[in-house]
Design a protein that fits this description.
With 242 residues, the chain is mainly α. The N and C termini lie far apart (59 Å).
Length: 242
Amino acid sequence: MPLLVVQHGVVGADSTTEDRKNFRAVAVTKGQLAWVLMKQEKYEGAIALYQEARTLFEQQNEPQAVANAWQGIGRIHEEASQYEEAETAYRRSLEIHTQTNNLAGQGKILNELGSLYGHNLNRLKEAITFYRQAADIYVALGDLRFEGLVRNNIATILNTLNRDDEALSEILQAIECNKPYGHAAEPWKNFAILRDIEPLPATQQQPRQHGNKHGMPTWPIGSRGAMHRHMTANWWIQFWDC
């Protein structure tokens, strides 16, 4: 087999299929090393490696890998508090996913943009817009797991904005989405948000607790079920802390 020769980051026209597979492996490895450097807070080196990986994937004509590389570049810029550069990279990734009609990729990047706007730029209303666009995509895909994650994010921001009715609707939908996944979906996180959104009034007495066959507490519930949801939230959080 002829040796793979890379000059100035370009694969020769006479390279074999196996050569190209090896060349792709180089790009993948660069991306993995970039992630390690990011975790070590060596951001400049991490970005340089991801840029090299992106260039190699472009030469291999792999648009999804290029989009993923842009996402990685965006994440590193975000970790480095370089938010403008992070947004630019995320939007490049989103553009490619849109051009290739990759709905799952679009949902993933919209969630990244929601996180960037919500956690770092403090542009909460715009963050909600990104998250809701992602949720719509996951509904269309029938992806309950990621729909639940995104609705969890929406509920958190709505709660911060004191839009409690909307927040309650979103977190209850998130809980429903996560039901098929059990503990793997970490439902206690949903219930912790629920408890913040809908706290039980201090003056309201708790009815006597009963338990079902699984040890899950049950209570008589009113029209909205606030008491039941509050107690269930407390049960999950106590279970998590044990």
